[in-house]
Amino acid sequence: PVEAKGVYVSPDVAKDNAYMEELLHYLDTTEINSVVIDVKADSGAIVYAMENETAKEINALRTIVNIPKIVKTLKEHGVYVIARLVAFKDPILAKAKPELSFYNKDGSKFYDTSKSAWVSPYKQEVWEYLASVGISCAEIGFDEINFDYMRFPTDGVANIDWGPESATKSKTEAITEGIKYLCETLRMHDVYVSADVYGIVISSKADA
Question: Considering only CA atoms, which of 142, 106, 108, 149 is closest in space to residue 126?
Answer without folding.
Answer: 149
